[in-house]
Every structure is written in structure tokens, then in C-alpha cells.
Request: fold
Amino acid sequence: MSRMQKNERIGVITQILTENPNKIFTLTYFAELLSSAKSTLSEDLDIIQEIFNTFQLGRIETISGAAGGVIYRPTMGKEQIAKFCEELCSLLRDSKRVIPGGYIYMNDIVYSPQISSKIGRALANEFYGLDVDMIVTIETKGIPIALMTARALNKPLVVVRKEARLTEGTVIHMNYISGSSKRIQTMSLPKRSIPKGSKVIFIDDFMKAGGTVRGIIDLMKEFEAEVVGVGVFMATAEPENKLLDRYQALLLLDHVNEDQKEIHIRPFH
Amino acid sequence: MSRMQKNERIGVITQILTENPNKIFTLTYFAELLSSAKSTLSEDLDIIQEIFNTFQLGRIETISGAAGGVIYRPTMGKEQIAKFCEELCSLLRDSKRVIPGGYIYMNDIVYSPQISSKIGRALANEFYGLDVDMIVTIETKGIPIALMTARALNKPLVVVRKEARLTEGTVIHMNYISGSSKRIQTMSLPKRSIPKGSKVIFIDDFMKAGGTVRGIIDLMKEFEAEVVGVGVFMATAEPENKLLDRYQALLLLDHVNEDQKEIHIRPFH
Reply:
């Protein structure tokens, strides 16, 4: 291949970093791929860093030292998140979403690849500083946003099942009480899926009293693992006192008025 | 903002296209974002197209006409897919993956954001030419790869549940017979999730006889929708005659030898 021009190098580096969030690439990797000197690549990365800042595309960070290199974090600014949450609220306030029983239809939102990807970015935003080994969720509706959070943070995803599956080998199976309905539920996870001492972030689509999160915290204790962060797409305003103190959320659901078909919802922050 | 340089424009356009697969952006969009003339942008896009080709990063296509613009398809070449499938086989042949009953532990693979993203790209590869409205999967293990396929194709994802959920409104609930175990299973989907006349692609992690796919085809008939494509991560060699004629797969499972703890698996193509 003939010698590459600066704009070609910048295109290739930008594509690879964007496609692989939160993954460290060494300068040597790009130097070999693009047959370029590291000093040249450093200049290219300065330009990429600047345009990502200017156009709010996330953050390019260079990490020095032996294990160093360059990493792309798909962060969002506070204003970007606020604007996105307002857009979500507008989508969700549609009266056609009210379901008998006071529920909200939101499958189309949490399953959308474009929206779930952005939800994942927004939830991941709070966790870049944490030392984390994996993302945990519970089936079913939280899986897409948990996967997209895991993608942004570049961590494995573990999915807790509500029934034991013998096709997944030896499992730890546990009962827990849902915080709002006080019903007994079960959760089940293959023994091999979480190594001892792991630090995990729990991601889910919806939280009312926090019973499921308490159940996950207990389940993680069985694995000698620790929940170091909790992020949910939507939390309810009531009960105000959740079964856990600290969690991240994007939206706060005040109330669903079934008769008037009104959904009262607002950004969490 | 001062006038942008060519390499800055190429960085921004590359980032936005990569982050939004299979979505058409008009030249007017980029012209306004980057305060540049369309003729200049056309030259930029030629360069981006060339480097994506050279480095096998997918395909940049320009679509002419009133609804025209530029689109990024995260395609993979035949050799790239073959190499990826070989890597997956190497991962899967590990004797520790054999589970009593002749099953294979592959949660870590199908739930990994990096791997599922690549599986989604590889499965989507076969479907860019099709006129499709949405991607359908059935809970639970197929959801991540189905979401990533939907992301590559930029289509909504619909997840069929195995139990009716009253929190999702009126559902169509159906029994079907699994092709290999001959057991009665149920599937359930909110009425509003698929409009009449929709064309869908069904994506799943595993296919043996094809009973689940048959069930999905019947369920889609209830919605007056049509399954126009089927893609699975792994299909079994036996039974050779599946309940459907045409499907895409990445891997072919010949046999699991429980005593010897051997998994005989190979790329499907």
C-alpha cells in the first residue's frame, strides 16, 4: 500500500475507536496497521481528540505507561443526557402507552437498537471511574439496555434467569421477595458465570421498591461477588424509600392515571 | 467555529456513520453540521469510502435522488466471516463447555458485547438486500445477537415471550410443538408490536429441528406478517431435514461427546 495521508489515517483510527468503545489500543497497533511513526500518530490523535470534544462525540483519552495507549469513551455531557431524557419523556407521555393495571408499554423503546444504545451510553456515563468486572441484569426487558451499557464499558454481560435452566450447567437458584407486590420470585444463575471476588454493576429497565435489586445483591453474595453500582432506565417516585440507598436512573415515573390515560414522567436529574 | 480542515471533517463524518449503521444521512445534514459545500463533502466521502474498502471496515454507499444521501453498512467480507467463525469454533471446542445432557455452555460468548456485536454484523450481512421491517427473536439467549443484528440493519427489535405478560397489554398467545423434544411450548407477543403486513427476519442463538422457527412463522401469520429470513448463530447437523428449507447460520454443530468431553463444531459455510 502507498503511504497514507493524514486524513486517511484519521478516518481509520476514528472508525476503529468508535467501533470498540472503552478498549485500549496501543500506539504500536496503529503504527503497524498504518505503517506510520508513533510521533505522527500522536499528532493525529490530538486532532481526533479535539473534534470529538467539539462535536460532543465522547472522549478520547491517552493512557501513558507500559500498558498505555488510546481509548475511546462514549461519554455524554450533562446537557446531552438532559436533552435525551426529555426526548424519552415526550415519547413515553403518549396516552396510547397506558396499559390496564397502570403499566406503561415501552417495548418499542427499550428494544430499539438506536435508543437502547443511547440509554446504555447514558447509564455507562456514571460508571467509567469504577473498578468493575462485569454487568449483571435479569431477564427479559432489561437485557438490551444492559448489553448496550456493557458495550459502552467494554465489560462482559451476565443475565440472571427467572427459572433454572439445566442447559446452562450447575446453577445457584434463589428465592427473593419482590419489594412492591411482596410475592416470592426466583432467580437462577450458572455457577461458572461469576468468579469469586467480582465487582458488578446491576442494570435493569424498571425499579419500584427495589426488591429485585436486593435479590441481586443477595445472589451476588452467594457468588462472593459485590454490587458496586446500580443503574435503571426508569425508577418510580413512590415508594420514596427504596430498599437501597444509591442508584442511577434516567427517568422518574411520578404516576400513571389510568382513567385520564396520563403518564406523569420526568428526567431523574 | 473556524473553518474545518479536511482531516477534521473526515473524522467527524466517519464517527457519525460508524455510530449509526445502515442509516441514511443527507449531504445537507453534513453540510450544515460542518459548514461545508456539498462538493467538498463528496470528495471527503470518496476518501472515506476508499479507506473503509482498504481496511475492510464495511461499506460506504451513496444513494442518489431526493431521498438520497450516504449510508454505512457494517458488512463483512467472506474471508472475514470465515476467520471469525473459526475463532468462535476454537473458543467453543473447550472441553470445559460440555454440560451434562450434551449441552454446550456458551453464555459468555452470546452475551459478550464485543462478540455478539460481531455475530450481529455477520448475520446481518446476508440481509442488506431484503425489504424488511423488523427483527424478531424469542427470549432469552438470542436477544443480544438479535439486538446486534437489528443494530447493523437499523431495524426495530421485537422479543417474543415464553409466558404472557399482562404488563405489556393485550397479547396474542399461542402454543407450538418444539421440533426435537415434541413438547408443547407457548409463545406470546403484544398485539401492538407488529403491524399487519410487516416483513420480519427471525434471529436466534440455536436451532435443532426448527420447531421454534415454525412456531414463529405461525405466530407471524396471526399478525398477518411474514418471515422473510431466518438467521441462527448455531445449527445442529442432525436432523439434516429441518422443518424449514432456508436459513442462515454461522456455526454447524455435528456432535457433543459427553464421555470424551468433545465438541465437534465447524463453520456453517
Observations:
- Chain A touches chain B through 58 residues (CB under 8 Å).
- The CA atoms of residues 123 and 231 of chain A lie 6 Å apart.
- The radius of gyration of chain A is 21 Å.
- Residues 6-73 of chain A form a domain with the Arc Repressor Mutant, subunit A fold (CATH 1.10.10.10).
